[in-house]
Amino acid sequence: MKIFADYHMHPQGHKLQPYTHQLLDPWAEACIQKEIGYFCFTDHDRYREGVDFSLFREWKQKYPGLNIGIGIERDNDPLTGKSGLAWVRENWENLDFVLGSVHFIGDWPFDRVGYEAGFSKRSIEEIYRDYVENLCSLIDEGFIDSVAHLDLIKIFNYKPAGKILDFFLPVLEKIKEKNLCLEINVAGLRKPVKEQYPSEEILFKAVELKIPFSIGSDAHSWAEVGKGFTQITDLLIKLGIEEVVVFRGHSRQAMPLNGMKG
User: Fold this and answer.
1) How far is the C-alpha of 187 from the C-alpha of 40, rounded, in Å?
2) How many CB atoms lie within 10 A of CB 204?
3) What is the pLDDT of residue 262?
4) To bridge 69 with a disulfide, which of 84, 96, 100, 212 should be the other Cys (CB 3.0-4.6 Å)?
5) d(CA 145, CA 140)
6) How many whole angstroms separate alpha carbon 103 and alpha carbon 120?
7) What average pLDDT does the chain have?
8) Are 87 and 45 in contact (CB under 8 A)?
9) Residue-level pLDDT at 147
């Protein structure tokens, strides 16, 4: 099995860096080296000013052998979330792919290093319920193609008692109802939780519901492109996940993993 698509990449990293050939070239070269023929840039919507559609279209002509998309990751940032959604609506036709994600509960950026104290202020179960409520609200807003790192709330390895699926089943059902995709995100392998997003239990239920999967490394540096993909191939085989989806103009195409060598 060979994972040949990466649909979660942040060329700008965690600061505004307008798109240039110099910024984007290393990402394409990394994909060529790692035999990732399908990929999409998905910078955080707070850095949308750096996204240059004209430059992107001109730049990607340098790499005719690659299938390169342009997208965005929009989230519920209390400062930029509403304007990010407005930008996505305005530029929907310019975008190939939109990830939807939750990084805040209220004004608490729960996934950032240095903010872990928030997990000790109330029960983990209550925190998970609030996180799920935010996810459902984001999905109801629309203008997304795939839900990113579904159980990101576990990033620092704070987990509720009982089955995690009990919290996330309503989200999976909403994803199915809205005909969206669910992202398999390997960044959790690089975080304290040491596990992909979402958990095996959630992925198994998503397979049962016949929800399509996008896949992404969540790379914030070109050196992280595809990082962790080889670590999850056994899990994909175990779950019977035989294809992932790629996008152009929000139109998705299923691409088989089964039979790919590597």
Assistant:
1) 16
2) 16
3) 36
4) 96
5) 12
6) 18
7) 96
8) yes
9) 98
CB 215 within 8 A of CB 7: yes
Q: What is the pLDDT of residues 211-230, one digit of tens each?
A: 999 999 999 999 999 999 99
C-alpha dihedral sign at 119, 214, 182, 250 = positive
Q: What per-residue string of b and e applies to 152-161 under the rule 16 or more CB within 10 Å gives b?
A: bbbbbebbbe
**Amino acid in the structure at residue 107:** D
pLDDT at 260 over 50: no
d(CA 39, CA 219): 11
Give one DSSP letter per residue of 91-149, joined into a string.
TGGG-SEEEE----BTTB-TTSTT-GGGGGSS-HHHHHHHHHHHHHHHHHH---SEE-S
CA 135 to CA 147: how far, in whole Å? Answer: 9
3-state secondary structure of 224: helix
Nearest to 32 by CA among 262, 248, 225: 225
Question: How many C-alpha atoms does 71 have within 13 Å on its Cβ side?
Answer: 32
| Residue with token string 């979402």 | 198
Q: Above 70 in pLDDT, residue 261?
A: no
